[in-house]
Write a structure and sequence with these properties.
heterodimer; A: 266 residues; mainly alpha; MetI-like fold; B: 342 residues; alpha/beta; D-Maltodextrin-Binding Protein, domain 2; 2 domains; 9-stranded mixed sheet; 9 strands; 15% strand; globular; disordered N terminus; binds fe (ii) ion
């Protein structure tokens, strides 16, 4: 019984501010919803969605491929790789962003070196990828968030019985075919969970995208609230963002249910 | 919630010294500037000053704290913030002969709700080596498709830029200002990023030819920021300061100011500090520590400002502060509409 009370208490602590935000969104003091919809909101939304796709796909590939390699192949230092691949977890994305920006920006050491080698000087003299961009953000997120997928995929690959895969090999499937037809589908629910966690982190980030001057739903909330002094508008964007996160949670839940079924079948 | 916690912390801080004479400040202005002055005030008057440095959202915080707010005064830059505090009903009227004497009438709220303490111009700093003298004379030119120079500018929605865009709205109308902002956006050398000084850094590195900057930063860079940023001396020496629109309406001015909060628990001390901030000692310190233009007539600008920034003797845009504050909403709409800087 005390546990129930505690749980409800904690839930209430979480739900209360969320409820306040939703209320502010529905009954704003100064409603700028039409201006938001006509101007910034579509940009925030499409930018966030673009980031989600651009982070989910490479994170999934990187996470699954690494998990497969360390669980199914023997190579030197495999054990070190097994946990070393998790280390980026401990690295805040914005910190990585600072480091890469210092290295790659116009006046950074790399481009300065290029000036010396090629006698370039002005920005118009040459092309260099802009780190403060969607591509830059996607790269930073992928590098720090893929361990979610890696971790869950590893667990799933290790849990899987070798029998179906060995059987498929006996029946003439090549290594790749048996990976794609047998092992990957079995791990799919776990991968989906990992990817949805990656996506939630991507959606919630503020530090990295702000530093890179890339507009997203979160920078939109901040900008509308503190620069435009409009709490209602910020709450409206925040409510939409929460809706997106809820959608991800739903997807994750459905995936988990599938995972349970797979495990029961085993 | 943040406001609530801040209030509690503030109250606790206030509680410790409740026996002594004191005054509590919420400040958007930075410690390194404010602290030496407030220390001096304490020495002169014996009144202890407690300061909470706020980064964002002062209006929200004060609203949340309501009657329980420990704050007496708000120190901030930007007239639209002063007006936002007034509109939110967070201020009270001050009638002080001393404030009225020290601060010119156009730099005070007609209702006595806020008072300007310092002024600075938003100017163009141009690369000495690449931009010939006289090549650029107005803000309007910055949006010229044939400008031929790249501009470095911080994010469009920053208070300094909103104030500047408001002045363009006042001069050119909403549509005119929108076209101007679009044009400036196309002439940017890089995505808006960093603070004002970083823009001059961008000119130094060659990423841009022109930077839009507040005047006092020239002083801060020129002195290496008191030894903290010696590399910035070269940045300052690499640029020529251009006061725009000297042939017509004048250069845009932005301000910093002080207000007395509605629920100020130490009203008398607060007014005393307001008067002190407009007086000779504080005005001299603002001018000499931070290279701003003092509002009190007769207080000299810093030697550096006198030599390199015309001692503040340039033509300033005479548009009223009330107008600038009024247009700030349109200005931030325009930044959103033209998707400035992307
Ligand atoms: Fe400043």
């Amino acid at each position: 019984m005390p546990w129930v009370v505690t749980t409800w208490g904690i839930s209430l602590l979480v739900v209360l501010p969320v409820g306040m935000v939703v209320l502010q969104a529905i009954f704003p003091e100064d409603n700028i919803w039409t201006h938001l919809v006509a101007t910034t909101l579509p940009r925030y939304l499409s930018s966030s969605i673009l980031l989600m796709v651009g982070v989910a796909v490479p994170s999934a590939i990187l996470g699954v491929a690494n998990a497969w390699l360390v669980t199914h192949y023997h190579f030197p230092a495999r054990r070190i790789f097994q946990w070393a691949l998790l280390l980026p977890f401990a690295f805040p994305t914005y910190l990585l962003a600072y480091l890469y920006t210092d290295l790659l920006e116009y006046a950074g050491p790399l481009q300065t070196l290029l000036w010396q080698w090629f006698e370039w000087r002005l920005k118009s003299d040459y092309w260099f990828p802009e780190i403060r961009s969607h591509g830059g953000v996607m790269t930073m997120f992928t590098l720090t968030l893929y361990p979610y997928v890696y971790l869950l995929a590893c667990a799933s690959f290790l849990e899987q019985s070798d029998q179906p895969r060995n059987l498929s090999r006996l029946l003439g499937c090549g290594v790749w075919r048996s990976f794609f037809r047998v092992s990957l589908p079995a791990a799919r629910p776990a991968i989906a969970v990992g990817v949805s966690l990656v996506l939630m982190e991507t959606l919630n980030d503020f530090g990295t995208v702000d530093y890179f001057s890339v507009e997203t739903m979160t920078t939109g909330i901040f900008d509308t609230w503190l620069n435009r002094n409009n709490v209602g508008g910020a709450a409206q964007i925040a409510t939409l963002l929460m809706g997106m996160v809820l959608l991800l949670v739903a997807i994750e839940q459905i995936s988990r249910r599938h995972q349970r079924q797979y495990q029961q079948c085993k | 919630m943040v406001g609530f916690i801040a209030g509690v912390v503030g109250l606790a801080a206030a509680g410790v010294v409740s026996a002594a004479e004191e005054v509590n400040i919420y400040s958007y202005r930075q410690p390194h500037l404010v602290e030496p002055m407030l220390d001096m005030f304490t020495v002169e008057t014996g009144i202890k000053v407690n300061t909470v440095y706020v980064k964002k959202g002062m209006v929200e915080r004060l609203k949340a704290e309501g009657k329980n707010s420990p704050a007496d005064l708000a120190l901030t830059v930007d007239v639209s913030r002063l007006v936002a505090l007034k509109r939110a009903g967070l201020l009270q009227t001050v009638n002080s002969i001393q404030l009225d004497e020290n601060i010119p009438q156009n730099l005070r709220d007609p209702d006595g709700n806020w008072f300007v303490l310092t002024q600075r111009a938003r100017v163009i700093m141009a690369a000495r080596e690449r931009v010939p003298e006289g090549a650029l004379t107005s803000y309007e030119q910055l949006s010229d498709p044939d400008l031929g120079y790249k501009i470095c500018m911080r994010k469009g929605n920053h208070a300094y830029n909103i104030s500047q865009i408001s002045s363009m709205v006042s001069a050119l109308g909403r549509e005119g200002a929108k076209k101007w902002l679009e044009g400036v956006g196309k002439n940017l050398g890089r995505k808006p990023q960093g603070n004002d000084r970083a823009q001059v850094g961008g000119v130094y590195s060659g990423e841009c030819d022109l930077a839009i900057v507040n005047t006092y930063y020239f002083g801060k860079m020129f002195t290496g920021n008191g030894g903290k940023n010696p590399e910035q001396i070269a940045w300052a020496k690499g640029v020529r300061v251009i006061f725009p629109n000297q042939g017509d309406r004048g250069a845009h001015i932005n301000v910093s100011g002080v207000t007395l909060l509605k629920h100020a628990p130490n009203r008398a001390n607060a007014i005393r500090l307001m008067e002190w901030l407009s007086g000779d000692m504080a005005q001299y310190m603002y001018a000499h520590e931070n290279h701003e233009f003092p509002v009190k007539i007769g207080v000299p600008t810093s030697p550096l400002v006198t030599k390199y920034l015309s001692g503040g003797r340039f033509k300033a845009d005479s548009v009223s502060l009330a107008k600038i504050a009024e247009y700030s909403r349109v200005a931030s709409e325009l930044v959103a509409e033209v998707n400035f800087g992307s």
